[in-house]
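An instance as discussed:

___
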Amino acid sequence: MTVKNLLVAQSGGPTAAINATLSGVLEAGLNSPHIGRVYGGFHGVEGMLSGKVVDLTPQLSDPEALRHLALTPGMALRSCRYKMPDPKKDDAPYATLLELFKKLDIGYFFYIGGNDSMDTALKLHHRCAQEGLDVKVIGVPKTIDNDLPETDHTPGFGSAVKYVCTSIVEVARDASVYPAQSVMVVEIMGRDAGWLTASSGLAQRAGGAPHLIYIPERAFDPDRFLSDLRELMTRERHVIVAVSEGIRDAAGDYVHADLPGVERSVDSFGHVQLSGAGRYLEHLIKTQIGCKVRSIELSVLQRSAGHCLSATDIAEAAEVGRQAVALALAGESGKMAAIRRLSDSPYRSDVVAVPLEKAAGLVKAFPSDWLSEDNRTLSQEAVDYFLPLIAGEMQTPFAEGLPCHFTFAENFVKL
């Protein structure tokens, strides 16, 4: 087998485990006799288009570097939200990237990201094949939304669940100290799918909260919400509500779209950037019930919480990276390295190759029957699915009492 170089990049939103996946890719690349140099593309394909590529090989000579990287949240290679155009309408970006592959003698390209990143990987795979360029393109999954099809779950999701549930438990503890009746609304990420918001139901195992859970897969009815809340308030002094940022009404419109002060923007993929579902419910409760109410938006805190890592998530994320390289070395291209669950208890999984066409740009919905009809509790099937993903504790290293994160020097190669 001819020795070729490896290029890896990250895209989309950060997670607490995406660098663990990166560490797995880099470890496998450095240890393979069939791979020469290991390169990193900074700021995804958008950065690569302007030549932002670093030779990572000399920066990984310390055996502890990869372990430190694996426990660092965020994205060590930075990110982008760049939509590759239809090559029939605009081939210029593809020509630039293929020329980059040729100059650096790239034989293996790995793109770590979510639904839209898989679409980018698929387009590059097709363009390389059309050009007759032998570059193995593998999509490597990540997203705290867990809405990527064809994989049991996505790296990063388990740590996000652990953080969300821990936050819910702590919010409930905080609320419980006061005598006045109150409602706390916790807004959780999830534009199109309610996996992360629904997973907050696990926190009930450490207390009673959340008491109500609202996900995008179900139309939100404000009248029913207020009725359910009033009923709960006859029994509960402090009510915790978990709500997805993407809840919609029966017409399919975001419920908080007309709330004063709510700003909405659209990214390059046409996705609405949301914020305000929690404030909408706060406003509704304040005006219709009049009790003490507060909303909390977990926002980016749930994406990169290195102090609340799931050991299962980090170990599995690194293994997905290693297996992605194994797939490419075995001749696979145009595939995604997907997680296949083998058993819940004891929890076991492996990594398999699935066609990128089955995941690119698509969304996997949360099974509606995993949440009770009254939006209060998870089914046993849901609990069995979620629990293994948050098992075990790890933590980003600390120095002088503060988190110590791994960083790459941005020494871009000369092209």
